[in-house]
Queue: 2 jobs
Job 1
Amino acid sequence: VSGSEADRLGFDEFVRARRQALLRTAYLLTGQHADAEDLVQAALIKAVPHWSKIADNPEPYVRRILARESVSRWRRRRWREVSSDALPETATGAPDVAAREDLRQALASLAPRQRAVIVLRYFEDLSEAETADALDIAVGTVKSQTRDALRVLRVLLPELDDELVVTVR
Amino acid sequence: MTTLTDRLQRLAQDAPDAGHATGDDGLWDRGRRLQRRRRAVTASLAVVLVLGLGSLTTLVVGVVDPRPVAVADADAALRLPDRFYDPGPWTPGVEETGPIGPLVALFDTERRTFWGESSTGIIGVSSSGEYAFLPLSGSAQVANGDVRDPRLSPDGRYVAYAVTGETRDEPNDLDGPALVGVGVYDTVTGETSEQLVPTDHGLAVENVGWIGDFVVMEYSQYDTFERTEDGYSTTSVDPGALRWDPSTDDLADTVSPREVPDLYDTTPVPDGLVLPDGQRRFSVVDVEGAVLALGEVDTRIEGRFLVSPDGTRVAGREDPDPAGTFGFRPSAIVVADLSGPRAGVTRDVVVSGGEPVAWRGDDHLVVVADDRRDGDYAGLVSVDVDTGETEPLLDVQQGVFGFPQVAYDAWSAPMLAAPEPDRPGDPRRMVWLGGGLVLLLAGAAFWRSRVRL
């Protein structure tokens, strides 16, 4: 098996193994199924040119692309946003569907970087330094963005007040 | 207790199912295409960078740090090119190339600068066929007749020209900046030296030329110059002459004009001049006016007499209207021996048409083959005066203004299969090209930043 073919096989294996996990993160970052799928595709495509260097441990690199792309894509889309009569696609039927929808809408109300910080810190369980590295911002910015985001979430989701006792690493 | 982390994990369960997601296949290939595009963009940027830096370097080096001037080979043997080319207005000057050595010829042509200025420049042609603009600083470029044209020394080493400059009183600038002396450019060292004549209002320069190694300037002083309501008033007196050997700096200023032959309608011979004396007689004089030889032919010659380098023959163009009746008949080019039983007896070497230009050796005459065709083309032929055999000698590419002034010694020099000069293009194209590519890539980058993968 040639080097290039080996890279391709390794990439395929990674995609098969980790795509669902990536989609979960992407869904939290975007709040939309289609956008989540697009975001994961974009991140995987952008990882290909660097695959030979990251093949041993690709996930951190791919997740870094995912986080940064979610921020930059939202910025790019602002100016070409189109209105639509169709309601956004959401999952339904789960017992706590209302709670999930409330959280999804609350996340959607955050600025993209705030949302990314919340997802990386509280879902991916990254430290402040790791979050800063993933988003290519300063640790101080991570702290301030986290603080601002939590303030918004407390207002939109009052029931979170008591449960926002989190350990800051 | 349910934390934000727990709620995020529950919400993440709503993510689309990877098993049903579209686009499972082809991600690797799309990634490779992206890689190739990035490499192409990187290569393009590198090209733009190189072009931009190259353009900038060309500009900066050309403007700020011209190449050091080297001394050319003084002993470079003259060779007569078989063609004079138009090297184009962007040909470099000797301030960029360094001195190109003794010149075979020089001529006027358009010169352009980076900032778009166009003027008439003087091009020199070296023995190896190299072309370069000459730095005739202070040269009186506003020609009013041939007198202000630069004159090439017989050996091609120096270029003499009338120079402009400061006057003690109001300058007579009716025909351009006032003339104040003569300058000489050394084609070997690249240096320019001047001999200035103190003057109140400037000099009325009659002639600048060479007699052997000496440059001669014949002039009069403007002794008055006043601007009036109707125009101006000026008088010139005190005719004088300046005689200067730039190789030895032997200078005789304000010599009597009687000591210097009138340069009008003269032709050179080694260390002297041939002066017409009427239409049948001529004299050969040296730089101090001493007569070296006299000659006479049996027919009327129109204009100049051409004496062969060894002094044994004379040639000229027969007067086509000797009776002055304004009648027309084709004129011949005639040649006569200057010694022996048939001295002065002319014979036709070219039956009709053409203009004799110079001797090539002692047996061949250089003749303008035809009148300028289409207004800007001329060819020269070499005529064997013993057999009448004619063969092409050289031609001039379109675009050259007038016929090049050829050094006297070059007419008898061996021929050179002249290489075509590089004819450099407009250097601004590189800047426009670089700028255009930068804009193109900036536009592409802007477009790409707005389009998703």
Note: The mean pLDDT of chain B is 81.
Job 2
Amino acid sequence: MSLPVPVCGSCGRATFPPRALCPHCGARAWREEAVAGGMVERVSGHVAEVRTPLGPLVVVRLVAPATRVLLELADGVPTATPTA
Amino acid sequence: VTPARIVAAAESPYTRHPSEDVTTETLLVDAFTRVLAAAGLDRDDVDGLGVSSFTLTPDRAIDLAWKLGVRPRWLMDDGNGGAAGIQLLQHAVRAVEAGDARTIVLLAGDRLDRSSFRELVEHYNRATEQWLASIPTGGPNALFALLTQRHMQKHGLRRADYGRLVVAQRRNAARNPGAVYREPLTLDDYLAAPVVAEPLHRYDCVPVVSGADALVVGAAEDGVALRALQALHNVDGQQGDGLRTGLADVSDALWRDAGAGPAEMDVISVYDDYPAMVLVQLADLGLADDPERFLHEQVGHVALNTSGGQLSAGQAGTAGGMHGLVEVVTQLLGRAGERQVEGARLGVATGYGMVLYRYGACANAVVLART
């Protein structure tokens, strides 16, 4: 259970969603890092912005109100579920 | 250099529920006919055509030229939504000045009903298709709900503060026969409206309409002159908070080129997809450094979004990016009827939009002057 976040193979900075060239250094060398969870920053209805430990904010479907969440792609849907 | 002037502006009336025989093409053709009549020109005078539309597809500007019987020496499509009106103007003015064309018609419009609007917002770009549509965010409302929460927190604003802007724009719409919502709106009505996406309620969101806007840029001495135009798109790569557009970086250059300051603007059109974005752009331009003070002391006293803006007149897809421009030009030409700002000589209009992932990436602005 995780969300794939692109990390630049040159400068090491993360970005989401994927870009063609790294917004920070311009390189075109990506690796993916599996991000397991993050902190909810804002919520409107079932839509939330979650801060990942790598830096980027991710827009997700929030399954239930929570501050700390697990992140995953559930049938292609960026999804956040409360940590147990 | 040949002087280029905006010699006419027109709008094909916005409608909330278009009939079956209305298409994006008929709307654009109607705007074309209206703007030529306003300019006192014939179809055969036109040697340039610029088009912006989400829903004209698979047709492009050349298809429309064919249908209209126009033989353009200058031809352009611009699909960049809320920024497209000013983008087209930017290129058209340079083209006339350079002698590439003498009479350019710029058109922007869309037919949007429930299903085509849904289609548009779910397939707005690839990032939306892949990362947002399945959540679902229901188009941009949820994203701007999050942005408005940030704006409220940053400036200590409450819903009632934004309501002052929405109510004032509705008062303007009462004097615009082309606005789809003209009946008075009270602050209580605003506050009691059903929620769309917290903290956004019904009157914070533009009514989706069908319609089209048009401008004529011609080689002429008389009309409305472009004093200054600045744009800066994708300023932060969607990695900021969305509470600052590219205008913040270019506003000094805009006012320098205009030879005038923000306080000298007689009429102001700011792209109003959501109230918070009006305040963000006004701050970027130096027109409202303190949003709370602006809302309480200046709203209702400055000529801002005099058509009622998109919040009351409606948002006809990409026409939303030309609507404010058409209003400023109409005011500067002295043709705004009951809502005419007396003696309007200088005006500013902004474009904003194209939500890539979290907020709009495009921003541009133009200062116009009556000659």
Note: DSSP finds no helices and seven strands in chain A.
